[in-house]
Structure formats: structure tokens, C-alpha cells
């Protein structure tokens, strides 16, 4: 039996001593002002035992991690038809997603880059009666926690500075791959990114991805096949232009966000969330990457 | 002495017999419903003699031809500083202006492609007290014709379908190469494109480009050097991805619009406007191109 | 205990009844003339038990599968320094590898696309005394089979038609990311692609990737960490523009070749090679993909 | 009557006093060792009067200027069919011609960029009995000077370092837009670039472009229409990524080479060649650009 608590305590102790923590995202004030000293980690195993250390109950902006939730909800609602509007391949593009969009006639490379997530948001806006309320309820159910909420300040700041997302949405619209109007879809999208959650809440919400689509309360959200699809997408596309490096260093499917959160998981075994607001040059949490590498090295649990 | 009237009559007669006239632009209803049978031509020489034939007094949507007017006004107002925000080189890009924008960090290749014209519009919006009124007054002065106006229906339709322009403007904004807000700049831009003018009015308004910056009433709008700059830009960049072909077939600086208008000119000699709403595969007026080729062949007046 | 033999027999029986087998690669005569009716599969588990069915002992051109062997040999020789000359990220580029090379200053995206493999070949040519002999010996050792050899006919045909590879090598040279001369490196590269092996031989040679770098005879070729690196690269980059799809449908690291071979593996569990010369639209063996999907579905053994 | 000699003397005097002369091309030793202090200019008017100053009779490597000669010869031989294999539009690409080649399926944007010139070379290699001898004879005839010759040292150096040209040629070959083998075509291409000529010889050889296709001895090499085509190509594509700037600053069709030469011309009026080996950041002769700008400013003779 792996000593998860001991390993996690060690990771937290090491993190506490690390000076070089990267830099906070600065494009909106809410992210820029977060305390760089924060570090949290929470792991839940398939037996639903929890292990945590550091600031694991402090909430932060989940940002792009929300793309996994919208993808799950949309895939559950529309099934395989989803792939007619967004592809499943890595983007391999260090900087210019819009160029790729133009080359591929408005079909984003995958649902975990911004243009792809905007298409997924459009699908949810079309299907849900009250998109923002219904999606929030979905996340609350997944995490089994009613206190999760949007951060309206963050959503407003995203809207004020999200010119590249407006560019992407309009380009999608020009290719007729956006059904609803740009402002409505982006209002939803900026809200999904603004959700605040703690490491503990994230780990709980991702439990279904290690448990064949069933959440902690044993309700089924996705089929085994759908979970496999999302896990494989997280592995190949979950870390911007560092997906290959993460697959190697950590060896787990996962997703990061510019708020400094990362969730990673080993199917049938465990799911773990880390948070440290400082980012490395490729936009992923610096201490989070190191923590997960250490975790898989010490537990010898990875997919490779 | 060249027999301009005889040549123009011949061109009109030939046009009238031509069946294959290309296709109207269809992206907005106002352009789609124009009568394909229309053809007009109006030429004014440096002595201010006018020669015309066909529907030369019927107004049509000048569309991208307006980019020459906004460029002239902006260059007159800010001078060479303009080139810090937009380059002067041909785009050489058959389809994806946005990609180029990304590769060149938000500096459009030239002011006659859409992203470049949007930057120029932004400059005017910053400088003018009442941008739309002041710009319209400028065009009226150039053409010495007070009846010129915006077509609000066309402007509204452009706005409804201009997703690529919204994408470009937002991308420019993300690179901090757009000072004003996207909606204000594009409202101005869609209006400039919506101006209705006849061949006669266009030829008159372009007179200053053959006359060292002085309009028909001898008022100075630009320096000789500024006129040279705009004429060279029209030659190298005035015809989308057909600039090279136009430079060869016609051999004059000029600018086309998807409303079917083309203006072309030979410095110190003459300036000519044609109109035929059917476009060729590259988006330039089919009969207009043929008419101008015939004109320069028969008059033996071209820059090459 | 999984009934590998039963499952494999079933896969072979299904394959035998499948009419739609894709198309052979036709760019060289040696590949074009292979019998489309061929199908073979060979699996070896971590206990070194072998299971096979169909044409599993017939040799075919391994083509791009050889890139895993050259990468292994080079990584074993130079270690982490290798990544200074080739990156580890998916290429995400459906067609134009050379463009990407230009955008990234001559550093190929990963060692499993052609430009990356050419850099790896260059490294081996620099380090090995007799590059072709030494590399062949390495593959023989891995597979524990002295009968493996180059197919000189195939190598010669590749050379006659390999213009894109010549273009890539020269472009690498222009960026100073190729030390040896183009002809020498490509002669080596075309030979590595020309190696003929059977499913059984391939499965044996890949045994070290499921066994922490130790081959069937327990000799150590790579460290555990190096094996993890190569396995993660196979998962994210092993299937051209179908890596994401393969990661999902099959859920195993692997590598395909245009000769119709595929090798895939589950660390600590098993390694499997399939062969069917007909390719799908993305250049991967059609029946091979189906066979592997069926294998992981029926055994419920995959990484996700 | 314009005082060409007086103006040219003034230009030479100014050049002599200029310290900031740019940098010699350094990629081959033959170009790197040329004396930066050199400056020459030679002008011939339509009446065949010659005016010169400075090192106007010293020979230098014409490099890319040769593309105009090969284009002329090929166009004269095959006529309009030529445009099936190379386009006539500006490339608008500051750096990566190969990318564009891939996007446009192996049809180079125009014959004055390297890939386009390589296609033209391929055409000549196909048509001429003794390509190198016959082409040299053509240039000698144009210039009416039998002493013009290849510089074998330069040709050999080009071959040793021309990896991007090898890449381009192989890519063209992969798109089946190169008939002959790469080495033969590039041997011809490297030779054409190596020709040594003086300003006087170049101005004489370009005389036909101001004289409707007739050389100084009144022999016809091209039709008026073919001359117009080449002149328009020189204007829109003759100066790498500085075509727009040159069209404005100088306002003449022309062609530059990395050896420091520039030829420019005003149809029916004059043709001028300058030489100064120091290049500006875009690869065009620094003093040559300034000299031509001054010439057109002082003579008030330009096409705009």
C-alpha cells in the first residue's frame, strides 16, 4: 500500500522551501494579486480515501481546468456528434491557434485549446435552458459540494481583456462553427473560467474520471468509453505546448489552468489536484509540475 | 491627342455584348441584388476634361475603395508616423490575413487589406471630433460633391455579417494596435465601406492622385510625396491577391471594391473609374478589369 | 488471467472476413505490390509468453517504426543532450512539417516525425563507427534475432523518391541542425526505414519498452526514465496526425509505419505487433488499428 | 533636358562621403571580401546616351539580378505557358518561402523569389541544348559584350552553402514542379547567380526593358507585352520584402542582388545600374537604394 500521506507531506515540505516559484499570471488583476507563497495538494484514491497538505482547501480560479467540465457535460449531452465540430488531435502550435483555425476551416484542433472550448461552450449554450445556472449545478453535483460558485469579478475582468477570445469566437462564427451570438457564448465561457474551487473540490469533481464515469456518490455522468476519450485528450492536449513534457515528466492525464491549478489522475487508482499560483514559461504551475513529477516518481504510479 | 471618348465608347459597347460577367458579391443582400447588366465608366484627364459612357452616374457601394480615402485622410493628419502601426508591403496571402497578423505581432502588412484599414480607421476615430461626419465631409470635398452619403442599410448588413472583421479588430486589440474600442472602430469602418458613389464621383475624388495632391478645385490635400506613397501602395497592394496580375494587365495604380467598382490612374495624365457588379474568382470586377486593360492597351498609356 | 490466444484468434478471424482493408502505400513499387490479404499479429507478455495468429512470421518493411529504434539507440548513447536538437511535443500539423521547421528555427517538433528522425539519424552517423552495420547489430540484439536485415531494393527506391526528405535534411542543414552531409545521413535514414521484420520480431524487439529497458535476454539498453520518455513520445506523437485518435481508440503507446506495421505496448504487461498492408486515410494500417482497438477492449487493458 | 551626368556626379560625391554603408553578404567568402568603399553608377537613356560615375566598370557578382535574364529567356522561349508553373503575385513573406510553397502546392508565388527562379532554371535546362553556354550567350547578346562570364569560384561556393536552395528544389520536385534532377538544375542556377558584370554592362543588358524588347543593337528579344509583364513583376516583386518600400522611395521597376547591384528603369526613358556591396537589413544595397531615390527625386522621373 502506497503511503500517499507521507509522500504528500514531503512534497509540501519541499514546496515550502522552494524559492523559484515562477510568476503569477498578470493579465487580470484578480490573478496578479494572489500570494505566490501558496501551495496546496489534495489526493483521493479509488477507495475514496483523501490525503491533503498545505492550502488544499483554499479556493482559486480554476480557469482552463473548467474546459474538462464543459467537455464532459457536452459529451454527455450530445455524444459522438460533438466531434463533428471539434477535432481530437494535439495542436502542436506554440503560439498561434487562430492560424490553425484558418487552415482547418474553422474546426478547432481539440476541445482543450481556447477555440475548441468556445465551440463546446456554444454547444452548452444551445442545449441548456439556463446555461450558467445549469452548468454550475453540474459542477456542484460532480464535486458533491453546493458551495462552488462563479467569481463575478474574475469573469468581468476576463471579458474586459479577452480580445483573443473575441477574435477566436468571431473567426469561428465566420466559419459557421458558432451557433449562438459571440457575446452570449463568451459570457458563458468567461464565467466557466471564473469558477473558484479548492484542490479538495477539484480532486473530488475529477473522481469520475478514475471511476468509469461515476462520481463519488456513485451517480453515472459518463460512459466508460467517454471517460477514456476525455482522459486521452487530457494526456495529449491538456498542457498547452507542454503536453509532451508533462506526459513524460508526470505520465498522467491532466489539465492545468493559469490560476495555478493542475488536476491529474491515474484511472482506477487516484486523482490529485495541486495549486501554486506561479507559472513556468509555458503557462503551467511551476511547483505543481514539480509536485506531480515527484508524486509519480515516489509512488511509481504512472501510465508509462 | 488620345481619343478618350471614342475608346470609352468602344469599351462600353464591348461590355454590353459580354455575357460572362462574373457573380455579384452575395454576403450581404444589398450587394447581391444589384443588376448584373450594369456597366459604367468615367475618365477625367489632367486638363479636367471628362469622358464617360454607360451607367457612369449611377451610385454603387464603393466598399474597399474607401480604404484609399481613409488612408489619405489619416496620412494627411498624422504623416509618416502612420507607418509605425501599419506596414507598406504586399500581403501575398491568398486567404489568411489573420495568420500573417499573428506572425508579425499585430502590424498589418499594408493599409489596403482589412486589418490595415481597421488600424487606419482607429487612427481617424482617435483624431476626428465627429469621425463619421468629418470623414464624409472629407470625401465630399475631394469629389467636390455634397450629395455623397453613407448607405445605412449596407452599413447595418456589414455589421451583421462582418465576423472576420470583428476577429481582426480583436486580434489587433490583443496586440495593442487598436486604441479605441472594437465596436466604435468597426462602426466607423462599416460606414466607410457603405458609401455610395458613381464612377463620375469616384474619378473626381481621385483627381488629386494624378495632380500632386491637389483636388479639382486646386485645394491641397496631400504632399507630392504622400501621393507617391499612396499611388505605389495602390499598385502593389490594391487588388487583393491579384495585384501582380493587375499591375501587368492594366499597368496602373488602382483600387477595387467588392461592390464592383475600380478606380485606376496614371499620374499627371488621367484617372478613371469603372463599375460592373460581377466579380471574378479573386473578387475584382470582371468587366472592370477587362475595360481597364483595353483602355491602357488602346491608349498605350500605362506606367510600364 | 487474460486469454490472449483466444482474443488474438478472434481478431485474426474477424480480419480475415473484412473486405474494406484500405490501400497499400504506392510511392515505391516494393510497398505497392504487397498482398492486401495479409494479416498478422504477435503478442508477448511480461512473462515472455508469446501468442500469435495469421502471417505473424512474414517480414515486411518496418518503415517509420524504425524511428523508435534509432531514437532508443541515440538516447542510450548521448542521453538528455539529445533534446537540444529535437523537441518532444506533438506536431499537430496535418501536412506541412517543413513550415513548422521554419517557424521553430530548425528544431523539429519531435523525433518521430521525419525531420526529427533525420536529426536522430545524423546523431547516430556522427557517433557510430560503421553506422549502418552498428545500427543493424543493435536491432538484432534487441530482437535477439540475427537474421534481420536491410532491404536494399526498398532503400534504393526510397532514395529515388524521397524528395521531401531531401528538402527536410537540407533545411535542417541550413539551420545548422545537421552535422554530417545530407547524402550520408539520408543514406542511413533510407536504410533504417528499409529494414524487414515480422510481427514476432518486432514484438520481441519492443519487449524492453515494457520491461524497464531490459530486453528479452535481460540485457539493459535504456534506463527506466529513458523508456518512460520514449513510451510517452510514442503515445503523443506515434501516429502522424492520428495520435489523438489512437490514444483514445487503443489507449496504448505505439508506432506505425507505412508498410502496414504497428507496434503497441502496455508497460509491465504486454507488447504487440500487427501487420496489414492496407492503410487508412491518415496513413496508418486500417486493420491494425481495428485489431488493437479490439484487443484493448476485450482485454480491458489500456492506460486510460 | 535632364542633366543626367550632373545628377549622377552628385550622387557619386554624396556616396563617397557616406560612412554608414551597411554590411557585405557573408555567406560565401567571395562576397564577404569585397571592398565596402566601392560605388558605381551607370545610366543609359532611350537615345542610347550613357552617363556614369565611380566604379561603374568594375565587375561584381550579379546574383539575383540574373533572375530577370533567365525569366526573359524562358518567357521568350515558352511564352504564356510559363505561368502554369510559377505565379505572378508578390510573396509578402518576410522569411519563409518554403512554407508558402507548401500551402500553394508547389507553385512558387513569382519568378523573382528563389523557388520561382529555380522553376525557371528548370525550364531552361529542359529547353536548351547546352544550358550554361546558351544562357551565357543570351546575356552576352543582350549586353552586346562578349567578355561577360561565370565566376566558377562563386558558383562553387554557392553550391557548398546553398542548403535552402536544395531544400526548395527538392520540395518543388516532390510537387512534380521540377522536371530535371535537382543537381543539374541547381548547378545551372548557381552559375546564373555567379555571373560577373559591371554597372555599365547591366544597364546595357536591361536596355531592352525600356525599349519594347529590342536591345541596343535593335534585335528583338521580347514582345512589348512580355516586357510589360517583366517590368510589372520587377516593380511588385523585385526587392524581397522591401518591394513596397522601393516602389515608393524609388518608384521604378527594378531588381537587386546580394552582391550589391541594383538595376532600375523607366520605360521609354532610361535604365540605370548601381553597385555598392554593403546591404541594408532587408538584403538590398544600402547606397544603391539611396542613389536611386535621389536620382528619381532630382530628375522627377518616376512612374508615380
Automatic annotation (TrEMBL), chains A, B, C, D:
It is an enzyme of class 3 (hydrolase). Pfam families: Glutaminase. It comes from the Bacteria. PANTHER family: GLUTAMINASE. Belongs to the glutaminase family. HAMAP family: Glutaminase (MF_00313). This is Glutaminase. It comes from Maribacter arcticus.
Amino acid at each position: 500500500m502506497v503511503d500517499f500521506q507521507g509522500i504528500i507531506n514531503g512534497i509540501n515540505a519541499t514546496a515550502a522551501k522552494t524559492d523559484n516559484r515562477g510568476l503569477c499570471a498578470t493579465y487580470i488583476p484578480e490573478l496578479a494579486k494572489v500570494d505566490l507563497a501558496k501551495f496546496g495538494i489534495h489526493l483521493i484514491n479509488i477507495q475514496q480515501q483523501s490525503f491533503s497538505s498545505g492550502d488544499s482547501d483554499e479556493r482559486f480560479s480554476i480557469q482552463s481546468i473548467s474546459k474538462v467540465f464543459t467537455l464532459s457535460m457536452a459529451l454527455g449531452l450530445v455524444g459522438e456528434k460533438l466531434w463533428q465540430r471539434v477535432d481530437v488531435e494535439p495542436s502542436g502550435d506554440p503560439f498561434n491557434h487562430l492560424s490553425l483555425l484558418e487552415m482547418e476551416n474553422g474546426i478547432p484542433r481539440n476541445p482543450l485549446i481556447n477555440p475548441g472550448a468556445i465551440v463546446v461552450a456554444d454547444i452548452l449554450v444551445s442545449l441548456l435552458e439556463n446555461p450558467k445556472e445549469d452548468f454550475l449545478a453540474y459542477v456542484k453535483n460532480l464535486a458533491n459540494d453546493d458551495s462552488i460558485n462563479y467569481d463575478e469579478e474574475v469573469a468581468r475582468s476576463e471579458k474586459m481583456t479577452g480580445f483573443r477570445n473575441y477574435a477566436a469566437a468571431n473567426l469561428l462564427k465566420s466559419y459557421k462553427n458558432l451557433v449562438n451570438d459571440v457575446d452570449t457564448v463568451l459570457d458563458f465561457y468567461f464565467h466557466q473560467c471564473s469558477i473558484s474551487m479548492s484542490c479538495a473540490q477539484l480532486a473530488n469533481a475529477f473522481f469520475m474520471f478514475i471511476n468509469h464515469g461515476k462520481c463519488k456518490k456513485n451517480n453515472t455522468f459518463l460512459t466508460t468509453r467517454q471517460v477514456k476519450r476525455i482522459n486521452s485528450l487530457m494526456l495529449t492536449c491538456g498542457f498547452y505546448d507542454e503536453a509532451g513534457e508533462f506526459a513524460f515528466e508526470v505520465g498522467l492525464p491532466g489539465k492545468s489552468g493559469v490560476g495555478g491549478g493542475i488536476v491529474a489522475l491515474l484511472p482506477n487508482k487516484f486523482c490529485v489536484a495541486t495549486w501554486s499560483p506561479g507559472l513556468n514559461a509555458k503557462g503551467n504551475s511551476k511547483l505543481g509540475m514539480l509536485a506531480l513529477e515527484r508524486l509519480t516518481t515516489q509512488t511509481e504510479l504512472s501510465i508509462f
